[in-house]
Each structure stands twice: as structure tokens, then as C-alpha cells.
From TrEMBL:
Keyword Iron-sulfur belongs to the record: no
Keyword set includes Heme: no
Organism domain of life: Bacteria
Organism lineage: Bacteria, Pseudomonadati, Pseudomonadota, Alphaproteobacteria, Hyphomicrobiales
One Pfam family, short name: DUF599
PANTHER family per the UniProt record, alphabetical: OS09G0494600 PROTEIN (PTHR31881:SF6), PTHR31881
Record's protein name: DUF599 domain-containing protein
Residue ranges crossing the lipid bilayer per the database entry: 6-25, 117-143, 184-211
Keywords: Membrane, Transmembrane, Transmembrane helix
Amino acid sequence: MLDLSIADSIGLAFFLGVWVLYRFVNEHGLGRLRSLSVLMNEHRMGWMRSMSTRDSRIADASIMSSLQNGAAFFASTSLILLGGAAASMRATDDVLKVFGDLPFGLTVTRGTWELKVLGLALLFGYSFFKFAWAYRLFIYAAILLGATPGPESPDAEAREKASKRAGFMTIDAGLHFAKGLRSFYFAFAYVGWFVSPYVLMTTTAAIFIIVMRRQFFSAARASLTHEPS
């Protein structure tokens, strides 16, 4: 039986609203200000253009392999965290006893606890599917990289189209990888709900500020927009 309080409902709505807001701002920018992720997409395309002019693509294949390994690592981590969330669901009785013995006046019902754990499991399940799909897309990108004609090919137009296909595939893979990371970031904020909805709103706002700063006001972004002297 779910008996969410008004504060819990507001906290959950705030969490979801901030998630959607960050996704929109990250992908569409703040006015003319583009995010770090969007700026990196241009360099992904530049990488593929440079790749198409090289005879030897060992370095390119090595970079692609590193990207695949990163996605695979986070996918496996998501599964471990998902298992931990499932174990927490089974320990509901023990958790309720612990909360009942705490002197802080925290009241947690079975339905509320299970809903919170289910939400956490959904976050890690979402991240797993995003990282797993990013891993597969990086494999596709590696295939497209290998299928790109070399600089000795007389058909420059075909080479350019092939490099663009590989570039767009890496962009799509990077997009899904970023969505998986976003789920990890906001999972930290979501944990605040296990304390109270007010902590949830506080941690959500804190995570939002952190990720916004990294995307729009970080040194990493500045390194992409500053012209070398």
C-alpha cells in the first residue's frame, strides 16, 4: 500500500523535473552556449575525417577499443548495483526495524521503502541498457571505421561519406554513454530520498549544479573553446 506524503510527492516530482531539465539543456544548450558534450561531437567528426586520410589506423582502432572497454565496465557496474538494489528489496523487514529504532523520528512504511528501492533499481537498470547499447554502437563504429576507404581510394566522395557514417555512429554511442553516466549522477541524488524528501531535493539541486558546471563552465569546456596562442 503506497502512502506517499505530499513532501515525498513534491520531492519525487522535483527530481524528475530536474532530470528532464538537465537533459534538455545539455542537448540544446543555454542560448548560444553549447555544452561540453555537444562540442565534443564536432571533434568526433574531426577524428573520423582525419582517420580517413591515414593509411595506418592502428591508433584509431586502439582509441575505439578503449571506448568500448569503458562502456563495458560501466555496464557491468550497473548490473552489480542493480543486484544490490534487489537485495535491499529483500531486506525490507530488517530496514524497517532499523528505522524504527532510530531516535530521529523517521517513519518509513513498507510500501514507501519498496517504492524507493524500486526507483533506484530502475535507475541502474536504465544505466545498464544505455551503457550496453553504447558498447554495441562503439563496435558498429569500429566496423565503419574499418570499412572507410583509405586515402589511396580514387573515390573521395565515397571516403567522405564513409567517414561521416563512422562519425555519426560514434556521436550516437557517446550520447547513450552520456545518458548512462547521467543516471549514475542522479542516482547519488536519489539516495537522499532514503533520508527524507527534503534531502532528496537538496541532493538533486547539488548534483544539477555540479553537472551543469562541468558541461558549461568547466576548464575542460574552456579547452575546447579557447584558441591556442
